[in-house]
Task: inverse folding
């Protein structure tokens, strides 16, 4: 076969092949491909995946919480047993609250009526003849006169003077119910080991037995007249106070600020209708 004949045969074959279609072969149909090529990645909704992951995490946390709750219920008796040990603390708190409430319910006390008199010599001369009306309040000491209220009277009165030097004086009222109608005297002594020094002019200290220290105060005690130094060596110091109710007056003669001098005190306390 010559070269020309081969070329013609090849051209004819190509012409036939180009004219062929899928319909020329039985069992094969022509269909347009709607799907994307398998080589490309399909689009993914990330928000849906995140929501599903969050829901799954919440379900896991719920299961863990349920497990811990069940465990906590099993341990509840032990915790209850420990709670019984705190009953004393609760009782102490309730008692403290009751004391605060009781103190808040106390009525305010009016100030006393006070006066002074120049008749110092006359008062001293009169009291020298009466029993237990002239006493010595030693350096560093506080003398407290307990005067209970009585149904027959309406007020308490006092008068006092000193020799040579002043003395501190104050009045308090104890709301504790009266158990004795006797007037008594209590002396808070200073330390025997205290060094002898000159008299100090500083503020008075009220940390005595009746009033208590700063950390332990008497919740039933009310102040009528704060303790301060009075010139009882120059004039008679007197006063009165109407009974606010049942209780006991505490008249304090305070020489705690003096570390050197003892004070001679002339005093009398009496009732008035």
Result:
């Amino acid at each position: 076969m010559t070269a020309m004949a081969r070329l013609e045969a090849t051209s004819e074959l190509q012409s036939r092949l180009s004219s062929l279609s899928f319909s020329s072969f039985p069992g094969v149909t022509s269909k347009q491909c709607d799907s994307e090529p398998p080589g490309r990645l399909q689009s993914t909704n990330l928000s849906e995946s995140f929501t599903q992951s969050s829901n799954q995490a919440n379900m896991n946390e719920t299961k863990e919480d349920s497990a811990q709750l069940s465990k906590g219920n099993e341990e509840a008796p032990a915790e209850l047993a420990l709670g019984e040990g705190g009953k004393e603390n609760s009782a102490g708190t309730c008692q403290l609250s009751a004391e605060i409430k009781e103190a808040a319910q106390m009525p305010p006390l009016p100030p006393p009526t006070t006066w002074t008199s120049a008749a110092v010599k006359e008062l001293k001369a009169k009291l020298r003849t009466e029993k237990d009306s002239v006493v010595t309040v030693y350096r560093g000491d506080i003398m407290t006169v307990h005067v209970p209220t009585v149904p027959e009277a309406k007020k308490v009165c006092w008068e006092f003077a000193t020799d040579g030097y002043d003395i501190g004086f104050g009045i308090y009222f104890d709301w504790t119910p009266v158990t004795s109608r006797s007037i008594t005297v209590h002396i808070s002594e200073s330390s025997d080991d205290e060094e002898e020094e000159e008299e100090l002019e500083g503020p008075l200290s009220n940390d005595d037995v009746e009033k208590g220290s700063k950390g332990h105060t008497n919740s039933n005690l009310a102040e009528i007249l704060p303790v301060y130094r009075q010139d009882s060596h120059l004039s008679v110091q007197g006063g009165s106070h109407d009974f606010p109710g049942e209780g006991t007056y505490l008249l304090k003669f305070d020489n705690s600020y003096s570390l050197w001098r003892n004070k001679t005190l002339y005093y009398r306390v009496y009732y008035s209708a």
About this structure: Residues 21-51, 73-88, 191-203, 208-216 have pLDDT under 50 and may be disordered. The longest strand covers residues 221-230.
